[in-house]
Amino acid sequence: MKHYLQFKDFRAEEYAYLFERVRVIKQRFKNYEKYQPLVDRTLAMIFEKASTRTRVSFEAGMYQMGGSVVHLTTGDSQLGRAEPIEDSARVISRMVDLVMIRTFEQTKIERFAAHSRVPVINGLTNEFHPCQILADLFTYLEHRAPIGARGFEMDSLKGKVVAWVGDGNNMANTWLQAAEILGFTVHVSTPSGYEVDPKVAGISSTGCFKVFNDPIEACRGAHLVTTDVWTSMGYEAENETRLKAFADWCVDADMMAVAQPDALFMHCLPAHRGEEVTAEVIDGPQSVVWDEAENRMHVQKALMEYLLLGRIG
Ligand code: CP
Ligand code: NVA
Asked: Are residues 144 and 27 in the same domain?
């Protein structure tokens, strides 16, 4: 049994397989073809933080595949009344086939997985957001990679530069793991005090990223420019301080102008126009944020299929 708790839980070769499955599954959806390999399977979704995309994409995806979902939040379950996470895992995993959790500390999802009888998927923690990077990479490949006999040419990612502008947060950490596994480099620019920490990011060396004090320099020559909110969920008390600290880390037309001429712009959403990105960039021609959001559903359908049924064919 496999869990998907962080990006490095899978190898490069598993990602190549998964991206090809995503392509097939997405095509079927676009052709209105029924594909229901998960009939009678149930996904429990546990949300300890808010969500729009993660909830809709997992829920719609599971129904499309013939399965059903149970939606739990801290407020409407015993999780909010201090039932131990280990006990919750033992109970929930006796009744469903798969669990998705969005919570605070990564240790919490690890404790859940350690006591679960079924695969557990990370739907975002303070440290990581692997389903989002799965969608972002698929989106990049869809826009930029040729398709060979065995699916996307994964070498299209090798040597590429992803510019990360903003907070050294869960998204940044997950980008670093992806870079280490898939062979690209992340140019990271954060305000002082908000740097990425290779230990928290869970990478084995610092070779997959370079640090830039100036966000413009991080974007120079990048194939993909990406950012995220300045204040992640769980850090709301720091909002005022962060607004001041991050003021120079707004992705704007000047940053896009020094990136590759065909560079893509991504943002996991929700976005705050005028804070981490200008409206001109996020609503402009290089932005692929709506594809990114839609692809959450397609990648997670392939992920659920893989965790529950293994390789197809
Ligand atoms: N990007 C993302 O995870 O969005 P939600 O918080 O809406 O789920
Ligand atoms: N870094 C953000 C991502 C939201 C999808 C957060 O954790 O709130």
From this structure: no
